[in-house]
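--- STAGE predict ---
source: upstream dedup step, 1 unique chain passed
mode: sequence only
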Amino acid sequence: MSKTRGGGLLRIREGGHARVTYVELFFDLVFVFAITQLSHGLIGHPSLLGVVETGLLLMAVWWAWIYTAWVTNWLDPERPPVQIMLFLVMAAGMVMTMSIPTAFEGRGLLFALAYVGIQVGRSLFTAWSVRHDRGLKLNFLRITAWLAVSGVLWIAGGLAHDRLRLACWAAAIAIEYASPAAGFWTPGLGRSRTADWTVEGAHLAERCALFTIIALGESILVMGATAAGMDWTPVVAASFASAFVASIAMWWIYFSFTAEAASEAISHSDDPGRVARIAYTYSHLLPVAGIIVAAVGDEWVIHHPVGHADPKISAALIGGPLLFLLGGVLFKKAVFRIWSPSRSAGMAALLLLIPVSPLVSPLVLSLLTTAVLVLVGAWESLAIRRRGHQLRG
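--- STAGE serialize ---
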C-alpha cells in the first residue's frame, strides 16, 4: 500500500505491514476483562432475557473495540497523543466493563456514559487528528454525528428502567450497526464511500485475530477455573478434555489458511474498505459470540456432566459452535467470495444434533459437538494441503 496522505498522526504506509504495537496489546487487556464479565453474566442469567441483554452488551463492547481497531489502522499508536487517547479510552472502558454485571440494574447510566464517552470522544479526537485529510475528516465527522444520535438513546436508556432501558439501548445499537452500511450519511456532510477508505488489511486481520485469542483465552480460563474447583472424577476429566479439545479445534479452524490469506485478499481487492467492513466490522462478531457461548456451555457441562442435557445446556453446546462456524462462513464469503463447504457441513451436523440433545447426557452432547469442530478443522486442513500440492504440481 502506498504512503498515506495527511501526515501528522497518521500511520506512514510505504508498502510494508503495519505491525500491531505494544500499546494496542495493552489496550486489549480491558477487553479481556469485558469478555470475562459477559460470560459470567450469561452463566448467572441463562434465561431468554439474560441472553438478549448479554447479547446487546456484547454488541456494544465489540463496537467500542472494533471502532478503535479501525482508528489505529489509520492513526499511529506510537505517537504520544494517540497513546493518551487510547489510555483515556481504556479508563472509560474499565468503567464500562465494571458496570456490565448490573448494567440493566443500578449502573445503567454509568455504563451508558462510559460507552458514549468512548465512542464520541474517540471519534472527535480522530476527526481532529486527520483534519488535514479532508476525506478522512468528513468520514469521522459523519461517524461522530451518528454516534451522538445513538448516544442520546444510550443515556436515555441509562436513566430509564427495566424494559424501557432495553428498548432504548436496542434502538441505539441498531442505529450504530446500521450506520456503516448506510455510509454514515449525514445531512450537510454527505456519505462516506468505502472506496475512499485506506485499509491496511494485515493490521486489521491481526487485530481481529488477537481479539479471537482473547475470547479463546477466556474460554480456557472458564473451563480451568471450573474444573479446578471440582473433584477430578472420570466424567469431570472427560468434560474438561472435551471442552479443551473444542477450544483447540476453534483455534485450528480460525487460524488455518483463512486468517493469513484474508489480509492478502483484502489488500488486492478493488474495494478493500467494503470487504473489511463486512468481514471484520460485522461478520467477526459471530465467532467471538460463539466462543463465549461455547465457554458457558463448557462450564455447565463440567458442573453437570451426567443426566439429560437441559435446554440451556443444549442451546449453549450447539449454539456456540454454530455461531462460530456461521461467522466463518460469512467471513469467507465476504473476503474470498466463496461458500465454505466444510463450515457449512459442520453447521448442518450441529443442527442435526438438536433433536438428539434431549436424549443424551451433557457430556455426550459435548463430545459430539467437539467432534464436529475437529472434523471441520481436519477437512479444512486437508483441503489446504491438497490445494498446496496442486499449486506446486
